[in-house]
Design goal:
The protein is of the alpha+beta class and 524 residues long. The protein has two domains: 28-245, Alpha-Beta Complex (Adenine-n6-DNA-methyltransferase TaqI, Chain A, domain 2), CATH 3.90.220; 293-317 and 346-523, Adenine-n6-DNA-methyltransferase TaqI, Chain A, domain 2, CATH 3.90.220.20. Helix content is 31%, strand content 17%. The chain is built from eleven helices and 28 strands. It has helices spanning 3-15, 29-47, 205-214, 216-222, 232-236, 245-292, 306-322, 458-465, 468-476, 490-493, 503-523, and strands at 80-81, 84-85, 110-113, 119-122, 131-132, 138-141, 147-148, 151-152, 157-158, 164-165, 170-173, 181-183, 189-191, 195-199, 239-242, 349-352, 358-362, 378-381, 386-387, 390-391, 396-398, 416-419, 421-423, 430-432, 439-441, 446-450, 485-487, 497-500. The strands form ten sheets. The chain has a five-stranded mixed sheet, with no helix packed on it. A four-stranded antiparallel sheet has the order 4-14-11-12, with helices on one face. It has a four-stranded antiparallel sheet with strand order 17-26-22-24, with helices on one face. A hairpin with a 2-residue loop joins strand 19 and strand 20. It is elongated and about 115 Å long. The protein starts with a helix and ends with a helix.
Length: 524
Amino acid sequence: MTPQELKNSILQLAIQGKLVEQRPEEGTAAELLEKILAAKGNLTRRRGGAEDMSGGSRSCATGAGEGKGGLKHLPKAALTLHGTPSALSASPRETIPDDEKPFDIPESWEWVRLGGVISLLSGRDLEPNDYSASPKKYPYMTGASNFANGNLLVNRWTDHPVTVSHLGDLLITCKGTVGAMAFNAIGDIHIARQIMAISSESIELHYVKVFLAASVQSLKAAANSMIPGVDRKTMLFRPIPLPPLAEQKRIVAKIEELLPLIDRYEKAWSKLEGFNRRFPVDMQKSLLQMAIQGKLVEQRPEEGTGEELYRQIQAEKQRLVKSGKIKKEKSLPEITEDEIPFEIPDSWMWTRLGEISWFFDAGKSPSCLKQPVKDKEWGVITTTSIQIGFFDETQNKVLPNGFSVNKSMQVRPKDILITRAGPMSRTGVACLVRAIRHNLILSDKTVRINMTDNNVYKNYIVKVLNSPQIRQFIINLMSGMDKQQVNISQKKFKTVLIPLPPLAEQKRIVAKLEEILPLCERLK
């Protein structure tokens, strides 16, 4: 269960009367409604007129007869929408049809229309000349951007308020983003049309907030038009399950008691979710690391040693030098104890990439056309074609007309490719080209490495290059690390450390990885 699902469940239990017990000494909602009706009747008689039972709109005015700049809510004889009379009405004692009751409630509760127990103020937008970003007398709340974690943020002000919310009102966004709520802890503020203000002297507004929070999804479903919005009728005529006043307060207190626990649950849940997201990738990295440390498959004496294989590779390189197929290269620096990142089996040996391979080729990157290569066209690979574990030949750009193609730079099956420049997260990634259909050449941000299949299993070398600790070795070779773009020279690539097992063991390591790594993919 997600934290939000848990919170929704608690809110739902609260408004169904299942979160706290019912206490006979607290009376009933029916008795509370009688008191509300009596209070409204007394108020009507004092004012000498009819009292709106619909949660009538509140407006404000300034001028003579109101004191010095005073603001007050003006009672209306009928519900108005920005001054326009409306036939809407809602009474505290209106009978709610059964088909409008979404669930059962305790016997001491009552279903009522929300408009029968609250007053509702709909906001109104001000003209641009009537507000500014400079502090003035009254804050101006325009919408969801003013709501943050149950608090109000002020970024506009006005000296010309029209629809004014007062201290203690419950504010709710009703257009655009529906359902954001906060209590007015500021004082007199003007609210725009995206906001409604709820007030009540009859019931607990914090309980109303609980009810609306539990109903936010159905409120959003009731939103209409291109810009979603909840109208006054939807709010005022919405049935609300009403407990006795004392029980309302106990419900609110219980939720406030549970919220810190929900927050703790959310942190733990987020931590677990993060672990679950990382687990397949972390497992893949661990398996690769175990593989190149000689811990994934057993060592077999009959397969020889890494040192014997190394001597065979050196003999092959000398033969190729004598035949003129490759050039003799300078010796690479000896491996020091400080460089060795981890221990390997006795039958293995540490070597450098340049000692067991040759043909460190880099390509060119002319100003290419930003379109994919077609069958007979020539193109250049992009760094995104080299992914960990596979080659994506669809990631390419078309070479410009008239470009002289050097076919020795053409990408071919069995090539090992490595990214040598670009964003740090993408540099030093290696792949083996298994097959290729397009005519593509290397880019200047990629390097090709080759070796004889008789002595080295290329798939194993790719796995080594992509393993965590060897990747870190490669990252340490990068220049330009203070920038977003980094690069590694071909010469530096030759110094990369490679743990070298016997050839047969290399193949068994790759076979085991190809057996179990797909299981990690399934975990994703």
